[in-house]
Give the backbone structure.
Amino acid sequence: MNKHFIQIRRGGVKTIIKKLRSFFYLLLQLPIYLISIPLIIILRLIKPWYLIRWEELISGRIGHFSLNTELYCCERDARINSPSQKHLDLFYMKKYVCNKQLEKMWRRSLIILPAWLLRPLSRVNHFFCLFISSFREHEIGYPNIDRDVHNLMDKLPAHISFTNKEELKGKEILKKFGLTKNEKFVCLIVRDSSYLNRYIRDEYMDERWQYHNYRDVDIDKYILAAEELARRGYYVFRMGVIVEKPLKSSNPKVIDYANSDMRSDFMDIYLSANCFFCITTGSGLDGVSAVFRKPKANVSLVPLASAPMDYKENLVLTKHHINKRNQKELTISEIFSANVGLAFHAEKYELNDVELKENTPEEIKDIVIEMDERLRGGWKETKEDLLLQKRFWEIFNNNIKKLNLGKPLHGKIKSRFGAKFLRENQNWIK
């Protein structure tokens, strides 16, 4: 009881300190806010000839920092959601940045100014928007969150790259892990709650992230697939900044990079950008692989409706959805009719009596083998496979339409659902 009381007191003290810091920071910024008022008016007056826009990059979460920013660049190049007139786009970031290497690379591609300068300008402009909506023209706005609804990433190259010096650095570190010049590797990105609980909660006033727990998986279920890849000649890097438990494999080609002394912000990006493909459960780091157009085997992915279906070469498996009352597995349509087809909170599954079960080690191994053979050109797709894929996507699309979202959730669907899973679970495709 005393221990709990002490924790409450400490939490209260931390909250007071944060509020005091915010107050003094606001005082220091007051002159900038005052200058921002006439500056906004000037920018508005010159808008007919030259438009200045700004936006805060979501730098605290690597999935958004990588993929959202890349999609902005793609839409800008394709002149989608972009002004027809001459304009300049400026960005700023919060103090906390999830990955310094990624920040460095975006700074080479975008104009990123200090937050103390642009944030007051943005807030003053937002205040004007309450009275004159046209002031919103100065706000860039993010494109469709992290969804490539225009299928631009299959058409355009990545907007960030490594310098020659960084390439050499990455190759040298790969040698230290035992890789020679031509050996391929796969990134294994398996989500648990450790990162959010350790790094993000302080940034958001000790907010807890239990509502994301429906996405968590057990790393042990991926050992079979990792060792199969090693048998096929790949190195496998288990990714992560901080993880709940180690990857237990005696195979020297299966590397628990997340617990390695050589883990760094730089190598997080370098490995994700240079892997042959990645296995992911829908964690933020796979956004970096997507930026560099690397194929993804999406495993135990939920919610089903939000799976990244818009990219060629991607494969998808979803978690098993079990009706708690009768312990029967829900079909595709039943997942949607149970109101969990697009459920982003653990509580939603609880309220609808749906239990989520991860894909089995065998299912994970099967989709990894499929990905490997497709990429190497050895995959043989039968007529049955084509019919099952067609049936799955027809049912999927029909249920997406019933959601009546008002805006597209996907572009042209180019991904495939796991072929062996569909063959062995044909009663599920309903």
Notes: The longest strand covers residues 51-56. The radius of gyration is 24 Å. Residues 164-428 form one domain. Residues 1-8, 201-207 have pLDDT under 50 and may be disordered.
